[in-house]
């Protein structure tokens, strides 16, 4: 972080000219400074920071500001910094397509690769130069490219072709592009993950001894009138509820969440994969599950008419809805109905 005297006084919407000629030779400005940036890199963030700074190199190192000393309400201006080194490039494979300005050269006399520009789907990425023998084939295609280097004398980075995705405009191709660009893991679950599923598969049944009801570590709530309320066609029912009037005039209200931890233990391959995926992703024509289907839509889905393991929160409320008592415990439930929103609303409205 630069000294306060060099902080930007007000945020600026101005953009630095991207033209190479407009960027000063910072290598000469910083000739006296040690650098951890590779010689063949062109760190534009460094150039922008130094250009915005406007400071000249000097033989004495300026006194930098400790980030811990910065007050959010500081009136000295907007804290300004400069890049002193690149630890690791945040480069990945990019979905791209051939530059629309590409003109086919027809049949070539030799099989030599040609240098073409490709445009990344992510508009923040500049054109990428790649050498390929199949430029004509790539026209109208979506494909993956990887950046290899960005020479300091070049305006654009250089990369290479990774693999083809399919024709532009094709639904399956564009869906894969969408998933890749948003870094959504969509590959099938590996065998090591599937090995963590219950050996009984879909035939798994609740067992009072194995599932710790007999030992008292899990409460049996199957006698309660518990139901779930979800959109029509929902298969991954992860919560259910009940409400009853108690003899003392108060109400008991319970919320029951599917006990996934009974099947997914810390450190398991399935646990690590779920942490990597972090959520189930819904698209118009498909869903990409966080957990294998056996758990997500079956054993860990609080469907009606079957015994399911849950984690329950039970409140006791007085007639004014003040909380009198609350308990938390593992449970086994037997939902009496899987209601849709419309079905639940009809019951509320029916006198």
From TrEMBL:
The primary location reported for this protein is nucleus
- Matches recorded under InterPro entries: Dis3_CSD2 (IPR041505), NA-bd_OB-fold (IPR012340), RNase_II/R (IPR001900), RNR_Ribonuclease (IPR050180)
Molecular function via GO? 3'-5'-RNA exonuclease activity; endonuclease activity; RNA binding
Q: Where is this region: Disordered?
A: 1-77
What's this protein's name?
Answer: Ribosomal RNA-processing protein 44
Regions of biased composition (Basic and acidic residues) lie at: 41-53
Q: Name one Pfam family in it.
A: OB_Dis3
Q: Which UniProt keywords apply?
A: Exonuclease, Exosome, Hydrolase, Nuclease, Nucleus, RNA-binding, rRNA processing
Does rRNA processing appear among the keywords?
A: yes
Q: Which GO terms describe its cellular component?
A: cytoplasmic exosome (RNase complex); nuclear exosome (RNase complex)
Q: Where in the cell is it found?
A: Nucleus
């Amino acid at each position: 972080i630069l000294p306060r005297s060099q902080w930007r006084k007000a945020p600026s919407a101005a953009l630095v000219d991207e033209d190479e000629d407009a960027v000063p030779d910072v290598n000469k400005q910083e000739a006296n400074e040690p650098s951890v940036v590779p010689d063949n890199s062109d760190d534009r963030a460094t150039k922008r920071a130094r250009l915005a700074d406007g400071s000249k190199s000097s033989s004495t190192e300026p006194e930098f500001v400790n980030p811990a000393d910065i007050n959010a309400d500081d009136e000295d201006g907007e804290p300004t910094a400069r890049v002193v080194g690149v630890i690791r490039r945040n480069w990945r494979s990019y979905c791209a397509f051939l530059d629309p300005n590409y003109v086919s050269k027809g049949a070539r006399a030799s099989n030599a690769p040609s240098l073409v520009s490709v445009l990344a789907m992510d508009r923040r990425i500049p054109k990428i130069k790649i050498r390929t023998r199949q430029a004509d084939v790539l026209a109208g295609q979506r494909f993956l490219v990887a950046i290899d280097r960005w020479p300091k004398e070049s305006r654009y980075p250089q990369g290479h072709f990774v693999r083809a995705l399919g024709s532009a405009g094709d639904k399956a191709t564009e869906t894969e592009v969408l998933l890749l660009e948003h870094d959504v893991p969509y590959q099938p679950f590996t065998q090591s993950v599937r090995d963590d599923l219950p050996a009984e598969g879909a035939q798994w049944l609740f067992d009072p001894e194995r599932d710790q009801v007999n030992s008292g570590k899990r409460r049996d709530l199957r006698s309660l009138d518990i139901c779930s309320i979800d959109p029509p066609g929902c298969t991954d029912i992860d919560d259910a509820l009940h409400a009853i009037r108690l003899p003392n005039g108060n109400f008991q209200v319970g919320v029951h969440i599917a006990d996934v931890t009974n099947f997914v233990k810390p450190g398991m391959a399935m646990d690590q994969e779920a942490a990597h995926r972090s959520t189930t992703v819904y698209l118009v024509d498909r869903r990409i599950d966080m957990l294998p289907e056996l758990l997500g839509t079956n054993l860990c889905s609080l469907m009606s008419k079957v015994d399911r393991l849950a984690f329950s929160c039970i409140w006791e409320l007085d007639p004014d809805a003040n909380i009198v008592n609350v308990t938390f415990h593992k449970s086994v439930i037997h939902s009496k109905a899987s209601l849709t929103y419309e079905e639940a609303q009809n019951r509320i409205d029916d006198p």
